Structures are given as C-alpha cells and as structure tokens.
Amino acid sequence: MQRPCLPLVCLFALIPGLASGQSILDAKQPFVGGLIQLIAGVRGNFGDERSPVTASLGAMETALSAWDASIQEYRTAVERQLQGAPPAATAAGMHVALGAVYLDRGHIDAAVDEFTVAATLDPARADIHRFRALAYEIADKSANAAADFRAAWTLDSTDPANAYLFLLHAPTSDQPATDQSSERERALTFLSAFQRRRAAEGQAEIAAPFLRVTLLDEARGADPFLPPAIYAAAFRRLNERRYEDALTAFRQAWAADPLNTDPALASAAVQEAIASLKNGQVDVALSRLDTYVRQFGDSSEARRLSGTAYWLDDQYEKSIEQLRAAIALNPLNERARMTLADVYVSSRHPSEAEHVLREAIEAIPSSGQAHWGLARVFQMLHRDADARRELETAMTFGPLAGAGRVLASIARSYLNEADLDAAARVSRAWVAADPNDAAAHETLGQVYWKQNRESEALAEFAVEALIDPNAASAHAAIGQIHLAAGRYAEAVEASGRALVRNPGQREARYALAIALLRLGDEPRGRQELAAAQQLQAEDLGRLRESYATNLLRIEAALREQQGKFDDAASLWRQVTERTPAAASDLLSLADALSKAGRHAEAIAAFREVAKLPVQPDVYRSIIKEYLVLGRTEEADAAGAAYQQLKKERLLKLVAER
C-alpha cells in the first residue's frame, strides 16, 4: 500500500515567526490519506467497498478545502512578515518557503514566481535554483530546468546532488562547447572525489540525496497502480495535479461504477456473504453466494464475487464458469476480466490468460490494467519483445505509482537486446522517475558503459555508490572505468572496495589484478590474477552444470511426451538433485511419479513442494495420491492442512488489501 509522502515543505517551511508553519506541514496528509483509501476501494476486490469509497471522496474534498485554506493562511502570514521589510536573505527564505508550499500543492506557475523573486533577493543561494528546476521539470520545461540545475551547481559546487543534476541535464547552449566540456569535467571530478571520500569514511547507510515532489511515497519495486478504466480520466487529472478536476471526475466515475450501482452489492445478504469470505469462512461464503447468484440472476457483480470466491478456494473450473457469466452479463466488467485472467494464471494456463486479456483490451481499450496483465503473461511465456510492447503501452496510461518497476523492465529488455539508444532513453526516464533508486543509476551506467560514454557511466556508478555504499557492482564498475582510463591507483582503490563487499566479484578481481600489474606490484598482481582465474573457472563450472541440468529437463519432457513416465521420473530426479529448491522441478518429478503409478514416491515429492513458498493447492495433488492408495485418514489430514492454509492465505490477502 502506498504511504503519504513527506511534504517538500518539511525541509524549510517552518520559518521563525510564522505560527502557521506547522499547520501547512500537516495540511496535505488528510488529502493523501483519503486518496490511499480511495485507491484501495476502487480496486473492488471484494465488493464491499461502497462505504469506504464514498467516505474517501468526502474526506478528500474536505481535506483539499482545508489544505487550500492553510495555504492562504500561510501566504497571509508571509505577506505580513514581508511588510516589516526584513533583510533580503530573510525575505528570500520566505518566498522560497511559499514557493515550496505552492509546488507541493501543484500550483507550478505560482511556485516559479516565488522562487524567481527569491533568486532576485538572494542571487547567491543555490537551493533556490534547484527548487525552481524541480518546478520546471514538472512543467516539462527541460531547458529552463537545465539552466537552473547548472546555476545551482555553479553557486554551490560542494553538493554532490548539484553536480549530478547538472551532469544529468544537458546544459543550455549559451556557452561555447569547450566551456561546457570543462564545466562537466569539473562536476564529474568533484562527484567522483566526493564518492571516494565518503567510501573512505565508511559510509554504510542507504542515502536519498535527491528531493522529489510526489503525492505518494511508494514501495520501490511495487507493482504499478493502474486504475480501472472508468477512473482513468480522474487519475490522469490527479497526475497532472489538477486536484479539483480530479475530484469531479472521481465522483462522475463513482456514480457509474457497478460497485456503487449494482443492487446486488447493496443487499444485506450479499454483504453478509462477503463478510464471511473476508473472515476466512469460504464454504459459508460460497453457499450464500450460490443462493444469491440465483436470486440476482442478472447481476454481473454477484457472478464476479462468486467467481472470486471459487478462485480463492482453488476451484478453478467453477470460478471460470462464474466469471465468464459475469462478463457475458456485462462485457465492460473489467474487474471480472482481470480476475478471470488471474485464475488462468493460477491454474497454469497462461495462454488462456493471454486470450482473456486480449479480449479485455478489445472490449475496453482504455484498460491499462489489461496491458500490464498481458505484459506479465508474456514475461511468463518468455516473449520478451511482446512483454516490452505491452509495458510501454501501460506506461502511456500514467500509473499513479510503480512506474519505476515498469521502466526497469523495459530498460533491461532493451539492454538485453543491445538496443542501447532505447535502453538509455528509458533508463534516463527511470532515473528521472526515482533519482534515489540505486538500481536505476546502475542500469543507466551499464548502458553508458556499453556505449563507450565513460564519463557519464562514471557519474551514474558514483551516484549509485553514494545511495547504496554496499553495492559491490557499483564499486567494481568504477574500478573498471578507472582501469580503462589508465587511472590505476583509483582502479585499485575502487576494486578493493568492491571486493570487501563481495569477494566473489570476478570483474573487480580482474581489474584489481591488472591495475596492480600496471603499477608494478607483480606479487600482488599475480596473486589477484590467480584468484580471478579461479573465480572464472568456478563460473564456468556453474555454467556447465546449468547447461547439463537444462539438457536433463529437455530429455525428461521428451520422455513424458512419449509416455515413458518411469524414465521421465528418473531424469527429473536427477534434476532435483542438482537443483533441490526449484518448485517447478519438484512438481514435474511428482507429476511424473504419479503418472508412472509410483504414488507413495509422488506424495513425498509433492510434500517437498509444499515446504516451499508456493500456492497451497499442491495439497490437492497430495490428497489425490493418498486416495489412490486408499489411505483415507492421511488424505483427510492433508485436506485439513489444505483448508487451514487456504484460510491463512485469504486472511493475509484481506489484510494486504
């Protein structure tokens, strides 16, 4: 779940003498809290979201009015202080604070105006230019932003964030190319030296040196939030910081949402069934829903909820039947379509899920959820180019959160295909979306390194190491760049730092060896070279082992196709001995043993799968094997364990959503 983002104004809004300072810090949070509740509600997972969504819309409207009132109060307080003709530096600070308040609220033009006044009053203050650059970035005025990032670096060349942001954004063209090159070289030299100094000081904690202006503070790597299509316009306005318009659009969408309009969902009987489901009483919920589906025969939502309950009970065929009925009653029931695709994925039928999602896109072209779901199915099927296409389409819908994960997948896909220009473009977008994500800087650095853009690569890896000092790969890459440039002492230093963090870093070990040899340190150089060669031999051994294991998998699958299940089981046994923790291999072994009639051994294999963090429906296979052997008591015990696991899974799902 998303969390409220710490307001930008927390950094400098509490100006002495402004009693309204704390209230402006607190003003945003109720609006964000209402938004978080709204996001959870419009997902519509269980059908009982009417009251929470209605309440969240009311809370957001009230909070927005209070937020605006606090801003007006704050502005009045600032103006009152300015009437006293404070010193220029103090007045500049007040304008900066007011600009930050406007920026946090999404009033970009007003924020720029305040920052501009502040820059006039205190032209030597670097942070004013960084804040104004952030505003220009939001307004898509990249040239203005670049000019301000350069000004910030010029005024304060002791801040690594200033150095990096200047390097990242192309300077304006009002300087000769030679001057630009010299300025960039100075910034890179400082950034690299600063990173080395911090590393030498033993910095170990994850850092977040870059200020972000966001409504929500999301968990890094989380799935993107792409709302139901009916809410797409509302969330688009929210992304544009047009909050009043967004609230109007939310109310219009809510007025047409089946969660709010379907009579079945308003009935006390269906709500009781939903409550039973959320309490883990799946059998009770299913019994009640079956009754209410007959009672509300024309309700697409009642069918959807029944299908969801059957899915949560691992009764896939009945779930599919109910969900298809829901779609037939309402072809625009996007939630039913998405759930149906999830059921097919859960039951290991990704091709069917693909078909469902393609139909969803055809019926609901504005469904960003369907494109995201289709991308994930393509990733399961190893259709990387198709997955990337769907991810890029999903990004056009402007996810409110989780853009970093999508951009990461797209960038790495292009990098794997050696389309470096595309990889660089997307990686830069990833860095812009979350400049405090070390992985984004690492990926962009790798792209630049492959493009022979050593200076730009060095900047990215230096920032990665500043954000995550324990990232061995960053230090290793820095060492390789220094080595290639003939800076052998720096290469030794960086490679050594990498190996402290990960002694198995082969690239760092090679770079260290070569740099030592270039510096004339033959004994240490040859020692490190031997260690690097040993690491390479171990890597080759693992590669050969992996290749041999894959050949066994191919051979086992072929034997199954030929109906030679004993032979297949023997081959799968060899595979599991090589990779004992791979659930898919253990499942394949268990299936082969079952088909070969070796049910006792199949039970043992299925139980090994059950120990792993996989779906509990493996117990269905265990129960089946026990019944084949006539061991009914053990089947009953396995059934009881299965029911308990399903209940725990359901309660966890309810808690998360």
What does this molecule look like?
This protein is mainly alpha-helical and 657 residues long. Among the domains are: 3-159, Serine Threonine Protein Phosphatase 5, Tetratricopeptide repeat (Alpha Horseshoe); 555-656, Serine Threonine Protein Phosphatase 5, Tetratricopeptide repeat (Alpha Horseshoe). The chain has helices at 21-42, 50-82, 88-105, 108-121, 126-138, 142-155, 160-168, 177-200, 232-239, 243-256, 258-261, 263-266, 268-278, 282-295, 300-312, 316-329, 334-346, 350-363, 368-380, 384-395, 403-416, 420-433, 438-450, 454-467, 472-484, 488-501, 506-518, 522-561, 565-578, 583-595, 599-610, 618-628, 632-656; strands at 3-4, 216-217. It has a two-stranded antiparallel sheet with strand order 1-2. α7 packs across α8. The longest helix has 40 residues, at 522-561. It is flat and about 85 Å long. Mean pLDDT is 91; it is low at 1-7, 9-14 and 172-176.
